[in-house]
Request: fold
Amino acid sequence: MSDEAYPGVGRVLVIIPTYNEAENVRLITGRVRQSVPDVDVLIADDNSPDGTGRIADEMAADDPHVHVMHRAGKEGLGAAYIAGFTWARDHGYDAVVQMDADGSHAPEELPRLLTALRDADAVIGSRWVRGGQVVDWPMHRLLLSRGGNFYTRVVLGMGVKDATGGYRAYRMSVLDKAELDSIQSQGYSYQVELTWRIHRNGFTIVEVPITFAEREHGLSKMSGSIVKEALWRVTVWGVRSRRDTLRRAMRPTDRWP
Ligand SMILES: Nc1nc2c(ncn2[C@@H]2O[C@H](COP(=O)(O)OP(=O)(O)OP(=O)(O)O)[C@@H](O)[C@H]2O)c(=O)[nH]1
Ligand SMILES: [Mg+2]
Reply:
């Protein structure tokens, strides 16, 4: 554990959730350590059958900046992140970063995210703002991401262009207010759920452009059920929010007898 701080942000923990990322975990951790030597890394592994957790332990033994959380089994991305956030809070970090293990989120872009966090509460590395891009994605993945983000923006009415993106940095204060224990999402709708809570709590969310690359090694965990979960959850949140707004508007105020 280090006491080193990123200027203007404080002590930073990069959380990398892993499930069967044996081919990627060493590479990504090395790139993070090289890109921003002052940050710590927490690998949150869901007992990967391919031995990812063992490799992470080897790295942690060699480098005091690297830590490993071994979880009992595959419980989804959101659960792994929430456990990682709790670990960060317990260990006194000022900010946390979310990063995939598969190389889609370039550690070399991390300084730009952290620099943006100096003037924001949350930063999203965005594929869908000017300057952002996706490299080597098949058409169906592009359509899914653009369509999903368009639907989310219309239904929830928040200005975020890449609410499903997973490369992010948060100040700890944002997570303290997010009531993480009640997050319901299991799959990647977790990204939208947390963004939605941060937005509703009135925090500043800034999007910085990133170049998102397709994974080179290992298998995707994206599935039809993950997409379906995101779709119905976003719809439910949107309907609830409109109902609440309507209720507030209809409520008699003290100004009227
Ligand atoms: N701990 C944990 N990590 C997970 C779980 N599901 C996915 N991950 C990790 O979350 C990150 C993102 O998962 P990916 O499979 O890359 O999902 P994706 O980026 O939407 O899809 P592709 O890039 O197309 O494979 C990776 O680091 C995965 O190893 C899970 O259940 N538990
Ligand atoms: Mg990926």
About this structure: Residues 17-19, 21, 44-46, 74-77, 80, 100-102, 104, 188, 215, 220-222 surround guanosine-5'-triphosphate (ligand 1) (CB under 6 Å). The chain has a mean pLDDT of 94. The chain is about 40% helix and 15% strand.
